[in-house]
Amino acid sequence: MNPQHSSVPAKSGWKEILQKDYRRSMAFICLSVWLHASMVTAMSTMIPNIVENIGGISLVPWTFALYELGSILVGAGSGLIVYRYGLRNPMSIAALVFTLGSMICALANIMPVMLVGRLFQGLGGGGLVAMSFVAIGTLFPSHLMPRAIAIISAIWGTSAFLGPLIGALFVEHLSWQSAFWYFTILSVVLATCIRFGFSGLSSGEIGKSEGRFPVRRLLVLCLGVLLIAAAGINVSTTKTPALVSAGVALLWLFLRMDAKAEGNRLLPKRPIGLTKRSSAGLTMILCFAMGAMAITVYGPLFMVNIHQFSIMAAGYVVALTAVGWSVAAMLVSGVPVSLDTRVIMLGMSILTVGIVGFVYAITEGPLLLLGLLVIMEGFGFGLAWSSILRRMLTLVAADDRERTSAAIPTVHRLGFALGAAWIGIVANAAGLTTGAPVETIEFVARSVFISCLPFALLGIVAAVKFVSSR
Question: Which pTM value belongs to this model?
């Protein structure tokens, strides 16, 4: 932490964090989070119109998987980048990378070009968010960190809820391309403000790190996810299983490589499995992230085509996840540690009911039930999240706590990427094509959500082990 902020005043509150010393940094951090979170939900809303215009319905899961992979790549090394180069330059570069990605998306006339843009958006957006959390620990004294995190959480929830409105307004009144130009302008403004107005520290003030960026391991990880995603394109009985097997083998290789690394391991040792409680915790997060991804990737597309919902209505149904998460997080903000295991099981049980409920509701509706199930998914995660973090930190060795804290969001994003890749295979195998009749889309929708049930089941099994006494 910056030594100049080491003293703790006798009395602090919201007024202090808005003082001149902090408010500019807080504003740039909030805009960084806004850019990332609003783009995620806006994309869900725009997907039906994008597919209608440029095709590529078989590649829809890639628009989310590549974004998450970009976030993982930069997010995993954000701490090392900041320690080496400071905050100002890396954050401004991340904003410009997001700008490049948004421009490519706006100019895309075929889905493969869109995917390139989404990868750059993920690299930039993931970098901005990851470095924003590093900035909180660097620029703010410890007594103001809870205030700063609370502000970011509020911005995240607000932007995730407003994202569908932004996407829908552009789609219905202008075009989806205009939405990407809007994000292009915002990211240029952010990059300029950070570069010339951010009071972030330089690398010399922060300190230096001797750790090496884990390029090979991250490339192996990303290649594994990409092979699984590629298995969903032109599904066949020979190519698809081969690509999935190769992808899983590379994921296993990544875990082996990471376990052998010492100073710059990304994950705790043996992070996935059911033999240790800490491993079960990360397995639970991975499985539930995979199981809950279907509504984000395909929800608006199914709702528009099956139920004839407007793009805005479908987008807002998906955005209710953020509402459920935020409400639940507020409700349990004062829960004592002694209740963590019960809160975790309650949250994961609610999440499971939501995932199971979609098997029926995605084709039968009505809108109210779909909205309730989406809220349940977000509510389950939000209810358990802080308790998951606290319990994880009590189960690992002291020298693994920081690594475990960083591993939780990384595994969560990896689950989103793998979930998007998996349901892409299922959807394309079930016959999802541009212009498919409603009956086919209904069959695809049921198949996609049924394919998520094994992940929910494994997630519950892992949760039971995670909260057990031994």
Answer: 0.77
